[in-house]
Amino acid sequence: MSTSDTPIVPEEAAQPVAESIAEPVADAAVEPAAEPVADAAVVEAAAVAKVPEMTPSECARQLKDRFPALFAGNVAKPLKLRIQADIKERAPGVFTKAVMSAFLRRHTGTTAYLIALTKAEHRFDLDGQPAGEITDEHRQVAQEELDRRRAVHQERRVKEAEAERANRDKARAEERAAQTQQREEQELQEQKRRNRAQLLRDFEKTTLTRANFCVLKGLPESDLDRVLEIARKEAAEAPAPQADRPHAPRGDRRDQRPAGPRRDGDRPAPGQGRPPRR
């Protein structure tokens, strides 16, 4: 499976990888010591004080503007080793060492940059020209990090799918439980209504005293009037039963035939057309 065919998770803990495949943070360019150490320290401090602090995002924007051949475009390019020294030489006093280090750690730790390391043949300088080959060690480190991110991504997708399935099953179970409870409640209310209707019919036909009737029905006498009132109200609100419609007698089909001239295709009446067979 190629690296570009499988989605990669966002960059996580990319700093160790970036440090292993990118240039060293320290600038190893040897500068001539033309002045005493004390004077050089003063000059360096003054230069740093003049450079405004910028974020890695602002650093990336300025690098794209100054060196578009390397940093602009949609495809990442492997950086030349010790590119920080070249930037410092071509843009003196623009980027502090801390800002450049933060930017390079983030830039060389992106998935796009790691993929570029595994596919490109050369590193590139600030002008977008080949500047050294990529070692097998750097390719291997980049590929191992890509594999790790792919595994993390796959594991996360599996967990998300399992969680989604569990939530879906839970929602369905809750919906079924709610429907069952609603159906049982409706059946219970319907049974109570039928019991009240039967109680009303029995009360209207009984010859027992009120007290004996309540004892027979297992109903407190104090609740009898209330229950009967509800039953009478429900009986009044109930729709009247529809009487069965009488079926019309089936007459002679010939009597149901519409009058009028015979249409083409109709069978001729007896005595017309061909003579009957003997």
From TrEMBL:
Annotated Basic and acidic residues bias: 148-192, 244-267
Keywords: Chaperone, Cytoplasm, RNA-binding
SUPFAM superfamilies: FinO-like
Gene3D superfamilies: ProQ/FinO domain (1.10.1710.10)
Every ProQ/FinO domain range: 52-162
GO BP annotations, alphabetical order: post-transcriptional regulation of gene expression
GO MF annotation list: RNA strand annealing activity; RNA strand-exchange activity
Segments for region (Disordered): 148-193, 233-278
InterPro entries referenced in this protein's UniProt entry, alphabetically: ProQ, ProQ/FinO, ProQ/FinO_sf
One GO cellular component term: cytosol
Composition bias, Low complexity: 268-278
Protein name: SRNA-binding protein
